[in-house]
Structures are given as C-alpha cells and as structure tokens.
Amino acid sequence: MQLRDFLLVIQRLYCPWCRKTEAVLPSWLSRHSVYPVCVRQAAVVNYLAGERGYRPVAVEFGLNWELLWQWVDRLARRARELLGQLTGLLLRYAPSELAVTAWSGEVIRATEVYQVKARDPARREQLAAIGPMLSLAQKLWQAGWALGLPWGEPDPAHLLGFVDGCTKVLG
User: For residues 160 and 37, is the Cβ–Cβ distance under 8 A?
Assistant: First the structure.
C-alpha cells in the first residue's frame, strides 16, 4: 500500500459568544491523528488477519509498531462494548428476523477470519471481538443505506470511521 500526500483545507466554525472554534472534519479523518481512519483500519485488520506480529505489519504501513499496538489495544478493549451498541442499532433499524439471522452468520464468518494472537485468555477474547464488531458495523451500514438513511453508501474501507460516528451519536 502506497500512501500519497495531498493538501486538505479544514474548515473551522467560530462561536462569537465563547470565542472557540471547532474543526469540521471529513468523516474519514481522525480528530487527533495524522493517519486517516482507513489506514488505521487497514493496519489493524492486516495485523489481525495475518500470522505476522506488530513490527512487520507496521513496517508495511510505514508506522511505528507501538502506534499499531496502541490502535489494536484501544479497539480490542472497546470491541465488546461496541458490538453491543451496534447490535442495538441494527435491531432498531433492521429488526426483521432475516436481518438478525444474516447478522449471526456474518459474526461467525468474521470470527473465523482472524488469527487471534494472545497468550492471555481475556486478551484473546478482546481481540476476537474486533472481527464480529467490524462485520456488524458493515451490516448496520448496509441496513441504514437500504432504508434510505443519510449515512452514505457503505464502504468497507471506512468501517472504523462509521463505528466512530455511531459511538459519537450514542454518546
């Protein structure tokens, strides 16, 4: 994967009462990172799906291995909670039995794809929840798109950005 440089102008909103500004970022850009969400997702998924460690995957993406470790760790610690939140949203927007049946099949397939690399059983469980969480995010995004919600067309490369957006809405 080759990264390209490009200029991006970020608009800022100004509040005259409190004299603060707020950046209006595109959905694919992380608020406190120079790396787009799609790069973070690709690196995490590449690590989880392969048999290589943090260092070789980080080199492939031009990252520091400790940064990749932080990304995986943060996502692993939140994956079960996110899975529950996304399940609630899916049942709200696509409550049919067909959607739930399709979702359970997707979760089983997503779990089989990733090679969970951890000695600690609790850590293995955390890492194993990332695949189903991403799979469920894709299913939810597709369901919302099919219902005509203004979420945009589903893009598998931007699932973490979609999940971040969902968690902001849920608070």
Answer: yes
Spatial separation of the C-alpha atoms in residues 105 and 166, rounded to whole Å:
22
Domain spans of the chain? 11-170
Summarize pLDDT for 43-76 with one digit per residue, the tens: 999 998 878 889 999 999 999 999 999 999 999 9
> Residue 99's beta-bridge partner residues?
none
Instruction: Find how far residue 41's CA is from the centre of its chain.
Output: 6
Six token digits for residue 13: 């909103």
**100 is written with which tokens?**
């739930």
Give the helix ranges, DSSP H, for the chain. 37-49, 54-61, 65-93, 97-113, 121-128, 130-146, 159-170
Q: What is the pTM of this model?
A: 0.73
Which of 163, 3, 7, 168 has its CA nearest to residue 87?
163
By three-state DSSP, how is residue 120 classified?
A: coil
**Maximum alpha-carbon separation in the chain:** 54
